[in-house]
Amino acid sequence: MTIENPATYWEELWASGRRYSPLTEPETTLLDQHVGPGRGRLALDIGCGDGALTRHLVGLGYQATGLDCTPAAPALAEPAAGPVMYCCADIEAAQPPPLPQQAYALITARLVFAFIKDKPAFLSRVRSLLTFGGVFWVVTPMAEHLPPDRASTGITSVEEELLTSLWATARSTDLGSLRCYALRAWGDATIEKRY
Ligand SMILES: C[S@@+](CC[C@H](N)C(=O)[O-])C[C@H]1O[C@@H](n2cnc3c(N)ncnc32)[C@H](O)[C@@H]1O
After folding, report:
1. Burial of 55 from C-beta contacts in 10 A (0-12 / 13-18 / 19+)
2. Could you tell me if the CB of 167 is within 6 A of ligand 1?
3. Does ligand 1 have an atom closer than 6 angstroms to the CB of 109?
4. What is the mean pLDDT of each run of 10 residues along the chain (195 residues)?
5. Strands 104-110 and 178-184
6. CA of 27 to the centre of ligand 1 (A)
7. Which sequence spans correspond to the domains of the chain?
8. Largest Cα–Cα distance of the chain, in whole Å?
């Protein structure tokens, strides 16, 4: 699916009352197992929507920032267990987003990757924002499991290959119609496994 102007497109959907698959307990349990407690580390939730996942990360002990291209979605956020920062920006803009920090131990993108226009550029940007050994957590439907009229809201097997390439480790787990990926960047602890 190609969305020319994501800010306008998503703003209208949020304003019309459209909502997306809510976080489930199996999903948060799986995430917690992969990423562990935050211990004050930095996390960035790309396409945070109403911030449910961002708030969960705060509850895990991360200093979390939710990034979304529309202000309407974060405005719906409920109170969190701690401070949550929000950044209104298009992650695909030519300039990097004006984020409060330069590198994040955890970056998440839930129900977002399928809508990214230039996926290789997006993945490069994510890698540039991750710490060495950091984790990129992605949750997405698979196009092949969706009805034809909704297939563009999921990713193809070719896009999955692109998503899971060039990481130190890439693990995926299916939870119902969603596939969850824990993609770990190369880092001090993983670099020696390359050779
Ligand atoms: C399907 S919603 C998912 C929201 C949330 N992650 C969730 O799981 O409920 C996709 C979200 O990604 C945001 N988004 C889409 N493209 C974006 C982009 N290029 N930059 C920043 N946010 C984007 C939209 O505004 C929307 O809030």
Report:
1. buried
2. no
3. no
4. 89 92 96 96 96 95 96 78 91 94 96 97 98 97 95 96 97 96 85 45
5. unpaired
6. 18
7. 6-13+20-188
8. 52
Q: 158 φ, ψ to 5°?
A: -65, -40
Predicted pLDDT at 195: 41
Give pTM, 2 decimals: 0.95
Give the full edge-to-edge strand order of the sheet including 42-46. Answer: 85-88, 63-68, 42-46, 104-110, 130-141, 178-184, 169-175
For the domain covering 6-13+20-188, report its CATH number: 3.40.50.150
Q: How far is the CA of 49 from the centre of ligand 1 (A)?
A: 5
- pLDDT at residue 42 in the model: 98
Best residue among 9, 115, 118 to mutate for probing ligand 1, ranked by most atoms within 8 Å of CB: 115
